[in-house]
Amino acid sequence: MCFSTLLKKNMTTEQVTCKRCGNCCEKGGPALHSQDLQLVRSGKIPLRSLITIRKGELVHNPLAGKIQPVTVELVKIVGTGRQWDCCYYNKEVGCTVYEDRPFACRVLKCWDTEKILDLVEKDTLSRFDILYQDDPLIPVIKEHERMCACEDLGFIQSNLNRLSEQQKNELEKRVRSDLRFRTRVITDFQLKLSEELFYFGRPFFQLLQPLGVRISESPAGIHLVWGK
């Protein structure tokens, strides 16, 4: 969840309770923590409502106040629309899972962000925490991590204008391998897009897009276009 706007506290207010305004819900779905495991295991928050942010992905860190690689894997409530509003937020009725809302939502106080900031990247759930040990997709996830790791995105971000042609070609190969892998697994396991986002996170080419790297398709295949 992005809390940058929540950090700007209004020191003149004496607010002490949630006004159910929805501002925090419109900043994105929360990351899940160990306290949320049973919500997922029980189906109250199904896998189709989750997205995995893999270790190394570039995200906004509210403590640092900037975009940087996430140091742990995060599983978040998926967002909707351009602003990535929490999928459980409805402007007319508010939170549609309020009684079963995640731990971070229970802790969050927009008028006092200390407790919620203490949760950033701490005691978070990963895919391997959520899935049972005998789940047939666990070895597939591990295979994908070996083939298409994203822990070098911080390096790519810092050296974007200094990457060699060989490095760019290797990244292009990773994009192609990632898409081929997903196509095969979706067919083999009959996964839906929403489930794919939990099991494998976003496609690698989407992780490069915030850096100004676009994707181009031609009869010869997929290519990366560098530069904004």
What distinguishing features does this structure have?
228 residues, alpha+beta, two-stranded antiparallel sheet, two-stranded antiparallel ribbon, 9 helices, globular
The gross shape turns out to be globular
Strand content: 5-15%
Quickly count the domains. Answer: 2
- Poorly predicted segments: 7-12
Count of helices?
A: 9
Fraction in helix: 25-40%
Main beta sheet, described? 2 strands, antiparallel
Count of DSSP E strands?
Answer: 10
Mean pLDDT: 90
Overview of the molecule:
The chain has about 230 residues and is of the alpha+beta class. It has two domains: about 5-130, no CATH class; about 130-225, no CATH class. The chain has helices at about 35-40, 105, 115-120, 125-130, 140-145, 155-160, 165-190, 195-200, 205-210, and strands at about 50-55, 60, 65-70, 75, 80, 85, 90, 95, 215-220, 220-225. The protein has a two-stranded antiparallel ribbon. A two-stranded antiparallel ribbon has the order 2-3. Strands 5-6 form a two-stranded antiparallel sheet. It is globular and about 60 Å long. About 25% of the residues are buried. The model is unreliable at about 5-10 (pLDDT under 50).
Helices and strands, with pairings:
Elements lengths: L36 H5 L8 E4 L4 E4 L4 E4 L4 E4 L1 E2 L4 E2 L2 E2 L3 E2 L7 H5 L6 H5 L8 H4 L7 H10 L5 H6 L6 H25 L3 H8 L3 H5 L5 E5 L2 E5 L3
Antiparallel strand pairs: 1-4, 2-3, 5-6, 7-8, 9-10
